[in-house]
Amino acid sequence: MELKGLGIKEAKALLDSGDATSSDLVKAVAEEYRARNGEIGAYLTFDEEAALKLAAENPKAIPIAIKDLINVKGQPCTCGSKILEGYVSPYDATVVRNLKANGFIPCGRVNMDEFAMGSSTENSALGVTRNPYDLSRVPGGSSGGSAAAVGGDLCIAALGTDTGGSIRQPASFCNCVGVKPSYGRVSRFGVTAFASSLDQVGPMTKSVEDAAILLKALAGLDPMDGTTSDMPVPDYAKALEGASLKGVKIGIPKEYFDVAGLDAEVRRITEESVKACEAAGAELVEVSLPHTEYAMSVYYIIAPAEASANLARFDGVRYGHRSAHAKDVLSLYAKSRAEGFGPEVKRRIIIGTYVLSSGYYDAYYGRAQKVRALIKRDFDEAFAKCDALLTPCAPTPAFKLGEVLDPLTMYLNDLSTIPAALAGVAADSIPAGFTREGGLPVGVQFISGAFEEEKLLRICKAFENITNI
Amino acid sequence: MKIDARYVAELARLELSQKELEIFQPQLESIVKYVEKISEVDVEGVKPMTHAHSRVNAWREDEVKPSMDREAALANAPARLGDEFLLPKIVEGAES
Q: Model ipTM?
């Protein structure tokens, strides 16, 4: 069975017609894993036996690749870190339970930047993932394994997580649809926390319709995650029927196009996407989000601050790596963490601890929370004038492995995806074209108001129809 | 802004080697310098945003529910003694 072009919709058709069972789908994915994971490195581990067991229990289920920070009972959950090597999950995350209850099964664990900190998957301590469109390039990150598996047809669809752009930027690099749902739409119970006021789980798929089907399976109130919303979950796929851009107001925020370092091809493809929307009947509205330029700074205070608290749990006591060189309990913490964490995680823990420390809290974390409120207000005001925003997603196409070494330069990858994360609104990346030289995929970002995924996906479906990628 | 990376790492219970310190120090300073851009913004009268939406409290009934099985919870322990996590002595002067 060929995985190219085999998305959720196509797999569902095979299951419904009786032309394939869940086990056939798992075997097809396993075959692709064996044939091509060696060169792409999307998966860290692939437990075919466990997937086949689940498939036997549910012969109508579709296998989904899982980012390696989402707990699946009995499976590893390394978060791309040495500190969790050997860890075996004692329980299923709520999103995994939701998958199983809605016709999906977890199948394979995909690579990521350590603890979701990074934009290239190069921060994984456990393996290299390559861009399926050009093996000398990165797949993006932090959900780089998910993106490479979807874009490289090593799976049917995948789950990723997005804190500042970790679903959308790799989706752009690997020609996938990647949706960061509104904050509170999807449960994070059982998903290793990075920055709790930002983290969201979302679908990474081969089409907008697949994303809609998968999002419906994931979303909803969870008593185990107090931040989940009790708003009803609409039938997103049904909402796509008859999708059109006619009369849709697309906001074009000038701040996203005035970015230094915006690649000429990304600019061209984004501008052509804007024109294509207009030609399809959308009304373009110029909008301004004046605090956009502060989003990166706000993010690199808030996310490390929350990470420094969340990652305190990795102390070598109850699970994970424990140093063999500890003399007492304090050195057990400090050495286990020193040996277990990689450089980017250490940098962020230090930054986060610094901005929260006595004497600095008000100037950094306290002030960042206020500027965050202004960023959210910018979105509220923009959405009073339009249905959705259309912006560049990543500032460049996929870059070469080893090309970006300076941490701050790497952070700039998330320039256009961070603001929506801070505001908690829904945003995605949709394939929009390829660079003229090298044929690298480029996605554009659509952003809607919070809990407006139905409208967002409808607009994206109409956009997908006119781009024919 | 000069940041004492070794001291801050100590606060975070993170041991740094001399080599790491030399690499991190300038990187951390440039990151902190970058984020200080927010000092330009007028935030007079702005309420801090702690979460993306304002769900205030998520109550549940105060009922006892089963928790994780003890063996499952201990299965990933780096060291254990019977039904407990085993650690070096914490309290000074106590019997270990």
A: 0.93
